[in-house]
Amino acid sequence: GILEACDELGIGFVPYSPLGKGFLTGTMGKDTSFGANDFRSSVPRFSPQAMEKNQVFVDLLKRVAEDKGATPAQVALAWLLAQKPYITPIPGTTKLHRLEENIGAAAVQLSDADLAAIQKAAAEISAEGDRYAPAQMAMVGREAPTTGADAYITKPFAIAEVIDCVTDVLGSSAAAPRHAEAAAAARPPGR
Fold first, then answer.
1. pLDDT in tens, 52-104
2. How far apart are CA 44 and CA 55, in angstroms?
3. What's the whole-model pTM score?
4. Is residue 24 within 8 Å of residue 3, measured between CB atoms?
5. Of the candidates 166, 41, 159, which has an alpha carbon nearest to the alpha carbon of residue 91?
6. CA nearest neighbour of 161 among 189, 191, 141
7. Angstrom distance (rounded) from CA 41 to CA 38
8. Neighbours of 38 (CB within 10 A)
9. What pLDDT sits at residue 83?
10. What's the CA gap between 81 and 14, in Å, rounded?
11. By percentage, how much of the chain surpasses pLDDT 90?
12. Are 34 and 102 in contact (CB under 8 A)?
């Protein structure tokens, strides 16, 4: 599998959407509604019925979080960090307090017993609803186009986008101008 290849090749792994597109934060539930422009409004896993059934995942995280004096998001990230030294979850956020909360996950210590309990409980849960709407699911597992109008963003541009995001979060801090310069330098011409 993928993690075995990472082990063998000595490369890192960045899990996509480590907080389940926000669901594992414990801040939403079956009564949460999404705006028309929020992609989750079309994702089957975010239907009220699916979120109600999938609440057991969040409840598990909340139980562990309460014992650790942490948040469900921190426990989810700490669990990922505890799996392999090369796993680096990078949750997206636009809010400084969420960035600080996510960084706090590095301080959450999960014992072997905690990890085993989480693994055992999670193995008994099955997720309800597809991860994406049918049109997006059709793209899962396909090779990214490398040429033409459908080509994916170039690596330097993706790095620039990450730096831009950090700059947005930092706002007016003293580091923001330096990050803005780095983002501009990493961005390909014409972007």
1. 999 999 999 999 999 999 999 999 999 999 999 999 999 999 999 999 999 99
2. 14
3. 0.72
4. no
5. 166
6. 191
7. 6
8. 13
9. 94
10. 10
11. 60
12. no
